[in-house]
Amino acid sequence: MTRKHLHELRKEFPTAEITINGSGHYALSWSVFTVIAAATPSDDAYTLCAYRPQWHQGVIGIVAARLKDRHHRPVVVFARAGDSELKGSGRSIAGFHLRDALDLVSKRHPGLLVRFGGHAMAAGCTIAAVNFEVFRGALQVVAREGLDAATLEEKARAEAPHAIPFHFHGNYFASA
């Protein structure tokens, strides 16, 4: 990798951490945890939709999965796909079929989704960039119809990590 190429990458992906190994291959990574910590849905939100112009399409699935795990809500995360479109990657929770939800959004809002596909737990879609807020609201409505607050709270308790007591024994940890 040349200095010029590295400079171009840093310009194109200013929030990325660029790692270069000895043979010149590189990897881009984003500080996903910063975004996850900052993205907090309101208490009455049944879904979470996120978009940052600098995100690359290659990371939005990871971001969606982490946000879903943290907030126990269906999540769709978007990245730019050309000048006028956004490509979204979604992850869902048990009890909410994400691909069927997108199908319902497309039927209620013809033309909102340029394309979509997937299955119950993961789906993707493309929308016009100007329709991000419309999409967010439409998915929220569908989620309110298909989920209830008790289900969201139950999932949060069920998916929370369980404390396992460990004790330090010299050079290793052992469960109690």
Task: List descriptors.
single chain; 176 residues; alpha+beta; Diaminopimelate Epimerase, Chain A, domain 1; 2 domains; two-stranded antiparallel sheet; globular; disordered C terminus
Short description:
This protein is an alpha+beta fold and 176 residues long. The protein has helices spanning 3-12, 32-38, 60-71, 98-108, 132-146, 149-159; strands spanning 16-20, 26-30, 48-51, 75-80, 85-91, 113-118, 122-128, 166-169, 172-175. The protein folds into 2 domains: 1-30, no CATH class; 33-159, Diaminopimelate Epimerase, Chain A, domain 1 (Roll), CATH 3.10.310.
Word description of this protein:
It is a single chain. Helix 2 (about 30-40) packs across helix 3 (about 60-70) and helix 4 (about 100-110) crosses helix 5. The protein is globular and about 55 Å long. The chain has six helices and nine strands. It has helices at about 5-10, 30-40, 60-70, 100-110, 130-145, 150-160; strands spanning about 15-20, 25-30, 50, 75-80, 85-90, 115-120, 120-130, 165-170, 170-175. With about 180 residues, the chain is α+β, with helices and mostly antiparallel strands. The model is unreliable at about 160-175 (pLDDT under 50). The protein has two domains: about 1-30, no CATH class; about 35-160, Diaminopimelate Epimerase, Chain A, domain 1. It has a five-stranded mixed beta sheet with strand order 3-4-5-7-6, with helices on both faces. It has a two-stranded antiparallel sheet with strand order 1-2. A two-stranded antiparallel ribbon has the order 8-9.
